Amino acid sequence: MRNRTSHVLSHEATHWTAPAHRVGRDLSRYHKDRTERAREELIAELGSCFLCADLGIVPELEPRPEHASYLESWLRVLKGDKRAIFQAAAHAQRAVTYLHGLQPADVIEEREAA
């Protein structure tokens, strides 16, 4: 299945999981610290990839000017912290697990049977 909006929606849904009453990622410095923003954006992007893969969705991405700046910010984080990719992937997986848990039981059973 291909979908243009799935990538953006799953990216934003991953951000949505951040508050303490969901999965508890600290976003207090998101608007103040470029490194923290880059980390959260990497988490959201990985979460989007994981969700789309789990749901069998191939997002149709069109390159946009801001993509280069996102990539640049992620590369700075990854070069500065060898564990950053693993931490981001772990946070993304927790977000995805939380989102999957919001599905009604019959949807979960149907997905697991497929």
Automatic annotation (TrEMBL):
Which top-rank group of organisms is this from?
Bacteria
Protein name stated in the entry: Antirestriction protein
Q: What's the short name of a Pfam family annotated to this entry?
A: MPTase-PolyVal
Residues annotated as domain Polyvalent protein metallopeptidase: 7-91
